[in-house]
Amino acid sequence: MQNADVAKIFEELADLLEIQNANPFRVRAYRNAARTIGDLPESVAEIIRDPDRSLEELPGIGGDLAAKIKTIVETESLPQLEELRTQVPRGVVDMLRIQGLGPKKAAALFNELKVSSLEMLKAAAESGAVAQLKGFGEKTAKTILEGLANIEQAGQRVYLAEAKPLADAILADLSQLPEVHEAEVAGSFRRRRETVGDLDLLVTADDSTPPMDRLAAHPLVEKVLARGETKQRVRLKSGLEMDLRVVPEESYGAALQYFTGSKAHNIVLRRRAQERGLKINEYGVFRGEKSIAGRTEEEVYKAVGLPWIPPELREDRGEFDAAEQGRLPKLVEFDDILGDLHMHTTATDGAATIAEMVAGAKARGLKYIAITDHSKRVTMANGLDADRLRAHWKEIDKVRQQTKGIEVLCGIECDILEDATLDLPDEVLAEADWVIAVLHYGLKQPREQIMKRLMTAIRSPHVDALGHLTGRMLGRRPGADLNLDEVLKAAADHETMIEINAHPSRLDIDDVGAAAAKSLGIPIVIDTDAHSVKGLDVMEYGVYQARRAGLEAKDVANTRTWAQFKKLL
Ligand code: DGT
Ligand code: CA
Ligand code: CA
Predict the structure, then answer these.
(1) C-beta of 262 in contact with ligand 1 (< 6 A)
(2) Residue 89 has pLDDT above 90, yes or no
């Protein structure tokens, strides 16, 4: 039982209670508990095991919550949750995945219209029944239909960051078997796509029984869906599915290459093989009946006259020409990152203080950061007006002076308002060390107005970077309608950096956009947008996105040392 699993249970409990119109204080207590546990750097299971410690040391955790956490860790569930689940249909909880539809609205739909699944919701919205419901209206009905379309489009894909801990845990477990020599998760996971449809685990073993039995018995696995000679498909408790394939060692490279994909990349590779009189498949590279390669991926690529191609580039987007001409990029790596220029504190909607964020960043080896809380338009997050911002910067300054070994910038995440003005006056922005401009509201405005807004930010002499450019949320809502070419050209002209927001639900700008920015020489800055100390750990997902864009360390501004970065400003 990981902290994240415990947090998820409390979140679900809070959702279900809220749907049932329970006491808001109780609901809030569970949500706070979810956040506390989710952000905790140490394992709650270990605190429970330690006889000298008590869960009640944790902020906001009293006797009742402590007992519940203990039950969850010991039984992987909670009787109260089980009971609530029988009272509220799964489909009603699913409705919460729709952007703009909270527990109160879900409850109204269930109680008034007896809607208990996404299909029923769609029908009710289309028939006009939803629009007529008190507190709903045409606009809400439309939002619901759009949300449903987004969910449908996203299918059952999950964020890479959700899949990663599961894949890593199972990979580590199977790797321990003496019968297993090599193991890797292939597919879209290895290509580090932003979402994955399923996991494709590959292991080498002479006998497929031990790894298959081990996977079937793994605590993360819910059930075996199919089992054959060398292939087994399972469903994890999270709902994600996984294929396990057991291959002999002499085919490992060929199988890894084949199952890493993408399909588009493999088609081109197969054609190259045919042109050389070779046949390529998951067992090896063959001339006639004779296998000439297959033990490693390097061998496979070499057989068709190519150097090894990093998995993140295998999308048939120019990697073959680059490989052929010896100009494959040396992709940026996690350890190259020295700064993080987008994060929040308790001054707005963050969970940690300035000092805690600085200490967390320092502990992660960062050499410079910018504290960028929200500007006033974001009332929901207690956004800062000019006076509060200046006072906040004073606090940041204090911490900066007390801390050695890391530079701390007084920054701001400034909203670009719907009327194409900036949320703070120029003279305030001029005092900032670092300004990220972002769209939060009015994302559905027509392209013309969105462009006007972005141009205001790009032309402002005070704006250093555009944050999460499109405002998209993966699988939940598309980004704003904009002309990317024009935005990037203007950003290049005005020397405005573009952010890759590393948050797993954003990853905005995307890989294709980041590659376009690189081709114009625009520095990319990879930021976490952390709202807690633990939030700083999503940096790796931003780096993956940058790698998929073909970015090298020199293309990423925050790989520079502080002295070099300062010059860039
Ligand atoms: P996903 O799971 O939807 O996120 O995407 P992938 O890329 O992991 O796709 P998946 O799981 O269907 O298959 C894994 C890899 O296996 C895929 O990237 C390439 C390879 N593969 C699967 N089917 C075919 C096929 O029909 N032809 C070729 N050449 N390769 C295939
Ligand atoms: Ca897959
Ligand atoms: Ca698969």
Answers:
(1) yes
(2) no
